[in-house]
Amino acid sequence: MPIPAKIFIAIITAAGAALMATAFLHWHDNSLLQFACFLLIAMLASTMKVRLPGMESTMSVHFLVILLGVLQLSLGETLVIGSAAALVQSLWKTKHRPQAVKVAFNVLGMTPLAVGLTYFAYHVSAQLIKDSTTLLLLVAACTYFLSNTVTVAIVIALSENRSARKIWTETFFWSFPYYLVGAAMVGFVNFSTRYVGWQSALFILPVMYWIYRTYQMYLGRLEDEKRRAEIEEQQAHAERRHVQEVSGVLQRTIEGLALAIDAKDHTTHQHLHRVRTYAVEIALELGLGEQDLAAIRAATLLHDIGKLAVPDHIINKPGRLTPEEFEKMKIHPTVGADILDKIAFNYPVASIVRAHHEKWNGQGYPYGLKGEEIPIGARILAAVDCLDALSSDRQYRKALPLDEAMKKVAAAAGTSFDPKVVEILQRRYLELESLAVRRLEESQTDAHSFNYSVERGEQPDAGFELNLNRRPGSHSDFLSSIASARQEAHTLFELSQDLGNSLSLDETLSLFAMRLRRLVPYDSIVAFIRKGDLLVPEFVSGENFRLLSSLEITVGTGLCGWVAQNARPIVNGNPSVETGFVQDARTSELRSALAVPLQGLNGPVGVLALYQAEANAFTSDHLRVLQVITSKLALFIENALKYRQAESSAISDFLTGMPNARALSMHLDQELARCKREHSTAAIMVCDLNGFKEINDRYGHLAGDKVLKIFAGLMRKACREYDYPARMGGDEFVIVAPNMTPGSVSERATLLNAMAQQASREVCGSDLLSVSLGAVFYPQDGSDTEHLLAEADRKMYAAKQLHYQDRAELSAALVKPLRLAPVN
């Protein structure tokens, strides 16, 4: 029971109980025998009860005794009579075990409150209305009727979330005349007691029985009429069902044909159902007859049947059609109508299909019909089909939000579409969308697909055997099969195009992974590249990214290593057999793997591995699709790796492996653009090895190359992660250091000098090298690459000249004291 109903019941019960307690505190009685007699009559009358129509509640005739008690007894006595009668009515011959809450509400709450209100209404009115017993009884009867019935109606309304007013008028209002008749009988009995005594109240028993029998007869007639109406409705329903079953065969035949045809165009059951719901509801509002409605229902399903005559590459073209292709597409309404003319429809379907691309202004096709020359069914279908097309995904664009799509359709009212149809559509499109979704959910059935079961253990070698068995009883959804065949062909074509459009490995593999998901669902994908005896992840996407990115698999070990060594695929393998595959409990586990070898022209290139969290998730059909693709993928990867190697050679220094002058120039342009965009600074340091020529002259060029390699390695280690060291050529190096201060440059110069000495000692055994460094800062010293490098180079040569000048002066100072004195 809802909380509001519980609160209301609690309030009424508390109020009634409080009234009874007050009455008992002020109890008095005039005649104990009269009270006992009235009490007995009321309890007897409460057994004369009838069930209210459409409810579990009952009504009895003991209200007559309560009205008589209001006239002749005290409040306390009348309350006891009412509560006792309510208790008997609640417990006497009930179909179900009475609920304590309902009994308490009737006995302690509603009845005492109704009796109390009636008692006070009568006696207060008696002070205002003198010598008019009839009016006073009318007030008492109305008060008791309203306080009883309205309270019950409110409880039912709160419990069932219905209208209290509607419940009251449909269930209780009919009994009001009986209350008035009962009040009249009570008035007659009250009058007779003046001459006969209170014992005349016994005459009320026949009246109560008469009212009870009248209740029964009236409600019995209602039940009989309801039963006859139900029987007639069942007969009519059976006849309608027979007609519907006969016509349903044709309708289902049409729908099955339409779905099979439209599945080739990536059109779903949802699309057809949605268009039909919209079109039929608009036709109903326009007041079209049954023949027109039947024609619209069929036309919404078959309006694109003529696309059988249009080549698939035009239908599924991802971009705008050329004028020639559009001319070919324009034949489909005529072809579709010609096909439907061969079917003996009892309603004008072909004319709707033929004209559903005509426009209100006469600019449509195939015949250029204008205004009301276009059949009304075609005008409805044109607007609805356009709205659905705009708000659905297509090969050439993403779906628009429904509100935005509706604005575009509304903008074409009076030019492309019938303004009357658009007005209804614009007013009701949200309601119709909800209706279409609800009806689709009601009509949907469980989808079936091909499933395979593969039992796998948890042993280290689990998943090395290909063993796919189709589960018995599995079925294929024919729509999914047709649509998936079309999607597979189209996606394979797109993948082939993608693999030939670029030599960028990361970019192409990312696009490849996105398109592949349409054909082979996966949670993670990894493209392993073979480097010697290792498989290294080149591309990773999806769940467990960090884990999969960290794998380095030795060929011949684990799942992918076995695939690489044996050049055979594995379906539903166990990913946990890979060395280093330790999943974090916080991440989703991967339980299935589909691994396929990548064989290039010059041998194995790597392995493509797909993972899913579900066990036994992959099928032989998934393997078939991958085997079609991976041969081309392997050739692409092989060529892309060669291109990468060539590209790397073009921008890398062969001796040190550092970026060369070309790479430095490109990076510096990008870095300066970034600094300008972010209003930051950068230092460019050009350094040269002093004494390098002496090493070449004394120890040979091989020693000089070794010194350069050692110095380059030390320089890379000394640089920050985001610094960019490069070799300009010879013994000249450059460091691009974002946000470095002049003080830090001085520290870096000292460090580089120590590194040069270390490299010299390792190769030559003595400190023959030092570093001359020139540094400039962006933007203080310039804003373009050429100017900054030239200025840094000038400063470096100035430092180098100063170095050699200081060295010459030092040598002169050391030689001068050694000169011999002249001989006498």
- The radius of gyration computed from the alpha-carbon positions, rounded to a whole number of angstroms, is 48 Å
Which structural category fits the helices and strands? alpha+beta
Total DSSP helices: 28
Q: In whole angstroms, how far apart are the ends?
A: 135 Å
Strand order of the largest sheet: 7-6-5-10-9-8
Instruction: Give a quick account of the main beta sheet: strands, pairing sense, barrel closure.
Output: 6 strands, antiparallel
Helix content: 55-70%
Query: What integer is the average pLDDT?
Result: 79
- Could you say which overall geometry the principal axes of the C-alpha atoms support? elongated
Give an overview of the whole structure:
With 824 residues, this protein is an alpha+beta fold. 60% of the residues lie in helices and 10% in strands. The strands form 4 sheets. Strands 7-6-5-10-9-8 form a 6-stranded antiparallel beta sheet, sandwiched between helices. The longest helix has 59 residues, at 204-262. The relative contact order is 0.04. Mean pLDDT is 79; it is low at 445-476 and 817-824.
